Amino acid sequence: MIRIDEAAFLRLVRGESRGLLPSSARIGLGGVAGLYRLGVGARNLAFDRGWKASHRADVPVVSVGNLTLGGTGKTPMVEWVSRWYRARGVRVAILSRGYGHSSGMNDEGRVLEENLPDVPHLQAPDRVDLARRAVEELESELLVLDDGFQHRRLARDLDLVLLDALDPFGLGRMFPRGLLREPIRSLRRAGVVVLSRADLVDESTRRTIRERAERAAGPLRWAEARHAPLDLIDAEGRSTPLSDSQGRKVVAFCGIGNPEGFRRTLAGLGLEVAGFRAFPDHHPYSAGDVADLSAWARATGAELALTTQKDLVKLRVLDLGPAPLRALRIGLDVMDGSEVLDRALSALLPSGKDAP
Fold first, then answer.
1. Where are the beta strands (DSSP E) in the chain?
2. What is the pLDDT of residue 2?
3. What is the pLDDT of residues 77-107, one digit of tens each?
4. If residue 37 lies in a helix (H) or strand (E), which one and from where to where?
5. What is the pTM of this model?
6. Which site among 73, 220, 230, 274 is 20 to 30 Å from 149 CA-CA?
């Protein structure tokens, strides 16, 4: 993840910061990006040629990952894949690095624990060891590797790679000049490419994204999905229908990799958002932040404050000043290519497991 001032960095690489100093900085970042590209290419070549070892688990591994820094909707995809296998009686475990938290479960992990109470989630830097533990100690029959496209030490049987329709190719440049973690041609390793937030762009844009991906990587198995709002939940896990947000003065905030995706989802619900704040991804909310947000909600006359589930698991408060605080819970909805995903996932079903 990006650890510097995220907003300033994004303004810089998008070209929004003008002047001699930002222009010089972009030139310097371009040089560093060239070195980064060489390093990524050398590492991938080492794995492709077997010079670096990939360790195979005793059960199938499905990786959910992406090409870019920032949020592409991996967590809803991990949840969707896990539910797909659980519905077929498969014992699943989720493995992740645990970015954004120095101890214990990070925010994405806590969301998955809440939404998937029957699926164990293991977090640690050594995911090869996690895979061994999941199989030997938890008797897992299939592993879902969260944010695993670049983690090649653990071999996988299927790579699901997400592209965010709002910025699928990370400004078209390698980090740190852009947001690409590796070149677009790396999609050749993907089993299925899933265009997330596909409902937020038109059909022509979706077609253009696919064409650009396939020019770089060749023919791809392709699916398109949206983040479907499900309900509103409070800090105690109580659910209320989406209709409770209608006709009320709303403020919203988030600390996620793609705040614009959250903003557009709210707009798609027809909500009039009186104020919107974006914090850095994985923002650790303090008591001061809660007091500031409460004052902000009071000053705007908000009747409801909305955030993401990823943010709510860190805040754990029922209200911000006079406004009830609720998280908009999101689920993945496959718009196109469900048969492509079904075939890819079905190929890894353990013997004796079948459709529900």
1. 61-66, 92-96, 121-123, 142-146, 158-164, 192-196, 222-233, 239-240, 250-254, 273-278, 304-308, 319-320, 323-336
2. 41
3. 999 999 999 999 999 999 998 765 555 677 8
4. helix 20-48
5. 0.91
6. 230
The stretch 214-228 carries a mean pLDDT of 97
* Residues 151, 218: Cα–Cα separation, whole Å: 22
Report the distance separating Cα 27 and Cα 24, nearest Å.
Answer: 5
Residues in the chain: 356
Using 50, 70 and 90 to split pLDDT, how confident is the model at 3? very low
- Residue 74: CA count within 13 A, CB half-sphere: 27
Burial classification of residue 187, based on how many CB atoms lie within 10 Å of its CB (0-12 exposed, 13-18 middle, 19 or more buried): buried
Chain-centre distance for alpha carbon 302? 29
Residue whose C-alpha is closest to residue 69's, from 307, 310, 285, 281: 281
Which amino acid, one-letter code, is at 273?
A: V
Q: In Å, how far from its chain's centre is CA 111? A: 12
Name the CA dihedral angle for 248, 253, 258, 261, rounded to a multiple of 10 degrees. Answer: 0
Instruction: List pLDDT tens digits, range 193-209.
Output: 999 999 999 999 999 99
Residues linked to residue 324 through DSSP beta bridges, in sequence order: 319
Calculate ∠ Cα 65-69-71, nearest 5°.
70
Question: Domains along the chain?
Answer: 61-227+333-346 (3.40.50.300), 228-332 (3.40.50)
